[in-house]
Amino acid sequence: MAEIRIEGVRHSYFPYPSEPSHWALKRVDHVWRDGGAYALLGPSGCGKTSMLNIISGLVQPSEGRILFGGVDMTDVPTERRNIAQVFQFPVIYDTMTVRANLAFPLRNRRVPEAEAKRRVEDVAEMLDLGRLLDRRAASLSAAEKQTISLGRGLVRPDVAAILFDEPLTVIDPQVKFELRRKLKAVHEHLKLTMIYVTHDQNEALTFADTIVIMYDGEVVQVGPPEDLYERPQHSFVGYFIGSPGMNLLPARIEGDRLAFCGQSLAMPSGMGQRLPERASLQLGVRPGAMRLVSPGMDRDALPARVEDVERLGPFSVVDVRLGDALVKVKVADGVPIPADDAGLVLPPDHTLVFADDRLVGALA
Ligand SMILES: Nc1ncnc2c1ncn2[C@@H]1O[C@H](COP(=O)(O)OP(=O)(O)OP(=O)(O)O)[C@@H](O)[C@H]1O
């Protein structure tokens, strides 16, 4: 086991990339800590699979280096990288028993029989596969087959990291939860570096201690879930983490104020100078950070209108018209919601300013 360092990596699938969109990875510098439980999140096409395949050696990056524990692995072939990869669909041999499937990676590496048997039984116990060990894989459900794929990743004694590429896509939601719990337990037991690719933030939040967010071929933020929620460094992180996501409202500078949706708010001193010229500006505010009041109740409230209320148990999500934008506001159960005309309070310390999608700071 060792840290995995991605240094100045760029990758294009085009032989002669000539424009930014030709790069699947634009430039990535990132360290995967030894023993970390990571979720790699991002929209479709942002480069997650390319990142995993570059770590495992299935893809050779156009530029940059991959180091395991300080050793340059960029030119080392996949089979000598000791990386286990679990894909969306089970990769197992249907005609073999579960035991033989689990033992397969060990037989290939000539692990002595007694040790192989012990490791297979340990992994089977961790994943609750013990009762299936002597069954043929063909007779098992999709979830059981995918559990065997996970087991084949875990059984090897020498793995530097296990990479999971949306491994639970084909699994029912109920079983998914159970498998995620098992994976988490396995991580706590084995302390292996695990990188888990998903589109699903709930899946990421339950599995990982660190979340890595990619967007358009770059790593845009790395941190524990709370940091990503409280201080998104990129507007995509604000939108993607949290449910509903952060409201993002186009804005522009008007003197020392930021104008948006027919309203304006004061900027803190110095912020104007920190905004790059001609940058595209957005205000970001979480649905739960705003207050919805009756008209005239708060002098800081911006004039707004309630358009729709969706009751979701302990809170409601209210669609509020603010100028030409529709803003989502989360209101706790029992707090009165104005019928139509309303006031919307955006607390300055929770109202973030993004310039060209990057966080500049809060309005206070
Ligand atoms: N083998 C390939 N040949 C050409 N282009 C590719 C290849 N693999 C990926 N790409 C392109 O590279 C970009 C990144 O793709 P990648 O599969 O790494 O993203 P992803 O985040 O894993 O997406 P998804 O979540 O949809 O799997 C996309 O624009 C994709 O079309």
From TrEMBL:
The topology of this chain with respect to the membrane is: Peripheral membrane protein
Give GO terms: molecular function aspect only.
ABC-type ferric iron transporter activity; ATP binding; ATP hydrolysis activity
- Gene Ontology CC entries for this record: ATP-binding cassette (ABC) transporter complex, substrate-binding subunit-containing
Keywords from UniProt, A to Z, are: ATP-binding, Cell membrane, Membrane, Nucleotide-binding, Transport
Task: Tell where it localizes.
Answer: Cell inner membrane
InterPro entries documented for this protein: AAA+_ATPase, ABC_transporter-like_ATP-bd, ABC_transpr_FbpC, ABC_transpr_MalK/UgpC-like, Mo/tungstate-bd_C_term_dom, NA-bd_OB-fold, OB_MalK-like, P-loop_NTPase
Domain ABC transporter, chain residue ranges per copy: 4-241
Tell me if Cell membrane is a UniProt keyword of this record: yes
Xref: Gene3D superfamilies: 2.40.50.100, Nucleic acid-binding proteins, P-loop containing nucleotide triphosphate hydrolases
Entry's CDD domains?
A: ABC_Carb_Solutes_like (cd03259)
State the family it belongs to. Belongs to the ABC transporter superfamily.
Q: What is this protein called?
A: Carbohydrate ABC transporter ATP-binding protein, CUT1 family
